[in-house]
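Example 3.2
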Amino acid sequence: MNVTTIRSRSVLVNDRMDAYFFTAPGVAASERLAMLEATGMNTVRLGDVARVWDPPRFARAWAALAEPGIPYLRPYDVFEFLPTAADRLSIGHNRDVDALRPSPGTLLQTCSGRNLGPCTYADDYIAQFALSHDMIRIEIPDLHVRAYALVFLKTPTGQALLRRGKSGSVIDHLTTSDVAALPVPLLPTEIRRSIVDQAEQSIAAAAEARRRLVALLAAQENALPMPARRAHLQDGWTLPASSVRDRLDAAYYDPLVATAGAQVASAGGTRCGDVARASLPLRYKRYYVSSEHGRPILSGRQLLQLEPVNLRHVSDRSFRQPGNYVIRSGMTILGADGRAEGNQGAAALVTANRAGWLASNHVMRLAPHEGVRPGALWLAIAARQSRAQINALSFGSVVDQINPGDIEEIILPPIDGAAAEEAEDAWELSAEAGSAMSRAISMLEIQLGVRNGQPEASVA
């Protein structure tokens, strides 16, 4: 049952009394802030403390292989912990393309699409990419105000207020005016300081973890650089009939993939199945429930996100054997479905804070054998040579898919113990970043409820 408290004045202002209207998330959040203001709490419009803007719409002109360009991220790519460029924007054929790069410290607010609302922070890594007009930029000079605003935008109250202003007959959309008009409640100074401390810890930890992982991947690439393609793809290649096995798709026989596998093997590589067991559970009937009645379940897209967007919870009655869907600390998980040229094969290391969560049948599990360091397995799977082999295994007439038996046959590069340990530490630091932000969001949301006379409770 949804229950909310409203003022009698609100009934008169809105000229209606139906509970359906007042319990709608956006209306309930607005009423909640109005009641806080009535008790004397100050609020400030986001546009009064921030520059809220978005770049003009533009026709994307992609850079050719040898043409100067800027790496480009699609709006939802920014929520991945280690996003890679979807493509490159041509510098010569896009006007003022440098302005599309967000400055470090900018808050990035999604303003279009089905899951409209999530917000994130642009650190030095994200700032190297160009972003489209579908990400509203929120620039706040004051570091503490910036951190507090980021947390509020992530709270259920902030998200409900944002979505209340959405428009669009087909695709939900927010404008800069909608975002600038958002009221931000100013809790007492000491409470705000505690919330900001947690948020700043999260921001710093996430940036450091990302820096370490990027450095590890760069060092791996320097030590064993991915072979270059000897000819353009459009020129094709020839293959003797005797080499054709039980597949006829060209990508499976790509010479670059064969060269990459041979390179890794000559460097002392190992068959994946000799260091890990791959598994992929069966499809299941989904019974989604609220957080108190089920376990969080990751989709193929969410496994790469520091804070899963639109995380769902599912009841154990969805599965015949729930244990087959549980992910465990130390596993490497990767997208098994999706476009081979997209996120398929992108891997994440399961950290302690997600141990016991569930993952869907679209997520491949790689459990390291005894004596194999989890960090070494993740680094080996994340190598460009491994990704090329994985994507070449894709099959499916509509959606690309890979199966566990094929994954176990790829050749993984050797990883030294020091790099494996550093990878594990970096992933755990990223988990600490996520936990710190969750604490900040929970603290703020709980305070808003307590000051409205609601009992103190945790926020999922």
